[in-house]
Amino acid sequence: METTKILDYEKSPGRGSILEVLKVSFRLGLTSFGGPIAHLGYFREEYVLRRKWLDEKTYADLVALCQFLPGPASSQVGISIGIMRAGLLGGVASWLGFTLPSALALILFATFLEGYHFTNSGWLHGLTIVAVAVVAQAVWGMAKTLAPDRPRVTIAILTAMIMLLFPKALGQIMIISLAGLIGWLFFPKAPVPETPKISVPISHKTAIFSWVLFFGLLLGLPLLRQVNNSPNLAVFDSFFRVGSLVFGGGHVVLPLLQAEVVTPGWVTDTQFIAGYGAAQAVPGPLFTFAAYLGTVMNGLTGAMLTTIAIFLPSFLLIIGGLPFWDFIRRHSSFQAALNSINAAVVGILLAALYNPVWVKAIKTPADFSLALAAFGLLMFWKMPPWLVVIFCAAGGAFIQWI
């Protein structure tokens, strides 16, 4: 009996070292290709099946929480597991290990392109074309899972139409809020089964402080920006707001980021789409695209600023949400609202597939042919994204040559 207690104690969350968490997450950051859904599969294999840091049910609950919150879901799951394993610093170590490889790769890519004449580059145009295939694949996969019935398909289509006709960040926030309200009021409420308690090393006071800080920054930064002309403050505000308001994570960040950095002229359309294409070739979270954008805007200093700003909301939301998730996840109304929000996310992504991705990348029949080939390689041949990126870069150079 005593032996069993010792084994349970050793396997329990929150009983590990920061260095251990950093080591495991760094290896995942080097090898986790394929986007957020694939990342969750890698996490399950490593943390649940191999290391047994948490059980299947607890892992599923963490995934549900991170899908409910705005921000990059896979990064938030990794942060949550790091916190449960080694406290708050364990969460930082988990994020750093998973994020650093792709962030460094994109910083190097942006540095290499500094001063490059973008408009005449065939291989760079190929990177914009691969974004069409990647986003189309994401729409296809998410639609099957998140919009499998007539009501949710309707929400997705209406959302896409509204986003195309009124492409504003505020419009996306209003659509997500309205979708959640519709789900809460009208979607069927399935019974929620009894689940074991999730134990996390965060007090309710710390969680409440995290929520206060999150909303204080979200509401206060735009006001401070009005009375302070600091460029760094403007950049931090824009990326913090994007990290705070993107439901679905991953590719859904594209339209919000595009509005924040291209509209004020910080980054050109071509630079933006090319960087997004390059982001498909690296492992780890797609939100490290912010490191590329920061480098283009202001070198290494800009990369650090934008990366911290876009991921900071995830930390605050996870720290604020974990201690209360046991209460939230037991209510069927929250699940119904989440189902409707996820359908709206599909519509937002569908609109992003057209603008800015399609309209910036597909100019000729040859461009469409290359995008179609890339889509087939990703969807049906199951080729790794980094290899498809190389294929499209070579294809873009070939199209220019002929």
TrEMBL record:
- Offer one Pfam family short name for this entry: Chromate_transp
Primary location:
membrane
Has the keyword Transmembrane been applied to this entry? yes
What are the entry keywords? Cell membrane, Membrane, Transmembrane, Transmembrane helix
Which InterPro entries does the UniProt entry name for this protein?
Answer: Chr_Tranpt_l_chain, Chromate_transpt
Gene giving rise to this polypeptide: chrA
Q: Which family does it belong to?
A: Belongs to the chromate ion transporter (CHR) (TC 2.A.51) family.
| Protein name per Swiss-Prot or TrEMBL | Chromate efflux transporter
Give an example GO molecular function.
chromate transmembrane transporter activity
Species, as recorded: Thermanaerosceptrum fracticalcis
For membrane topology, the record states: Multi-pass membrane protein
Q: Which residues cross the membrane?
A: 88-110, 122-143, 155-187, 207-227, 239-257, 303-325, 337-358, 370-399
Keyword Magnesium present in the record's keywords: the answer is no
